[in-house]
Each structure stands twice: as C-alpha cells, then as structure tokens.
Amino acid sequence: MNCGELLRGAVARLGGDSPRADAELLLAHVLGRDRAWLFAHADAACDPDQAARFDALLARRAAGEPVAYLVGHRGFWTLDLAVGPGVLVPRPETELLVEFALAHAARESPVAVLDLGTGSGAIALAVASERPRADVVAVDASAEALAIARANAGRLGLSRVAFLHGDWFAPVAGRRFDLVLANPPYIADDDPHLARGDLRFEPRGALAAGADGLDAIRHIAAAAPAHLAPGGRIAIEHGFAQAGAVRALLEATGLREAGTLRDLAGHERITHARAPD
Description:
Elements: H1 3-14, H2 19-31, H3 35-40, H4 48-62, H5 67-71, E1 73-76, E2 79-82, H6 95-103, E3 111-116, H7 122-130, E4 134-140, H8 143-156, E5 162-165, E6 177-182, H9 215-223, E7 228-237, H10 243-252, E8 256-262, E9 268-274
Parallel strand pairs: 3-4, 3-6, 4-5, 6-7
Antiparallel strand pairs: 1-2, 7-9, 8-9
C-alpha cells in the first residue's frame, strides 16, 4: 500500500478536529520523513512493518493519546521539544507568554527571568533562545518534568538555563526577578473536559487546581511581590473566563497596572502586572 492510500484510510478512521494533520504527522514519524516529503511522494510504497507501526499509532491516537506523545516531540516557538506523558504538551497560546517576555526584556541587557512550572522547558528555553544575556531559572515540582526540560536544554545548547526542583517559588527563596512567567494548572477539579480527549493522558497535576481552578494562581499571586524586582513584571496564563479573577488577585497584593492579553482566538489568556518601582 502506498502513502496516499494509507493516509486516506487513516483520515476516515481518526475523525476529530485535525485528522489529516494527525495522520500525516504519525506517518511521517514512522517513515522517518517530514510532512513535506509525504506531499511529494504520495505514491511511495510502505512496507508491511511500517504499515503495522502506523496502524498501531493510529489506534492509540483514535483512543485520544496526544500526537506529541506518540511521536515524542512538539514544536513550540522556534524550537522542537521532546515531550512525554510527564509534561503538558506545549500549546500555541502559551507562546503569548514568550511574546510578553521578549517585549519586556531588551536583547542587549541582562535580565533575570523565572519560569514557574516549566514542564518541558518550553517557555524558559524559548526566552533563552531569543535573549542570550538573560539569566533564566526554571522551576518544577516534578522531577520527571525537569529531566525532560534539562534534556531539551542540553540538546538545544541552551546551557544558561538553571533548572530547580520544588514547588513554585520555594527553590528561589530570597531571590527577585525582573520577569516571572507562569503557565500553572487552571482547570477546575470537576471540569468534565479532564475526562475527555487528549487531557485524559496529560498529567492531572499540571491541569487541575481546586474547585475553581485558581488555587495555583492564588498561591503564585500571593508570593509574587516578594520575588519581583522593583518595576518587575509577572505574567500568568489562565482560562478564558478567569481574567477578571486573576487581575483582582494580582491587584490585591499591591501589584500595579494589571492587564490582560488575548490569544489568537480572541480569548483572554495572559494576565500581567508590575511591581512598584
């Protein structure tokens, strides 16, 4: 069977939001090629072993397992990151945190950046790749996640990023930063989406945070003023209906100029604030 025939059957089998893209990514992975190669070689034959491996991956994807876990990597910003079940799959909307950081970190000046809950290292490594003079610290409570993040840093040659194990600000007690960035868990514990689709396979501790989804953000907001340099800024990713609550949490700590940025879908996604000078 050739590649084109395999893809047509896979698309019919998968359904979902992006069956064609998912099938192409999985087949390209099996063949050791990229998607562009598939477009140009639809008539290329697949041997029985390749077809069997593709079929096995399709079955797992049809059951909801994220494509990124199946192929072992995911693109984020300009980077290709290794991922696995121990970390969240990096999402495009999180790149808004990177954009915020770059807008407030001059390329020529040293800047201290803290990434809370780094997971695969996506935010920290993206910032480090764009700001080589930045002193970037990445924290995560999961040793498994930190191992993945460190491996990504090593493979990408981003040796200036320091990875620390611990809960939120605990590993950086007494330190202050110019920028604090966080993509914490923000889904309510009883949200039915946690039992559906890809989310079933991602680490629950990186997704859910209490009855209203704001437990982690409350903790971060309360501790942030003690860890921001004068005039330093914090930016937090959150759910599309949580912006008002997050602004209120940040303002209640004495931080100023709280505002919210929208993602490409128009959803309020990143709320930020500034420490007094």
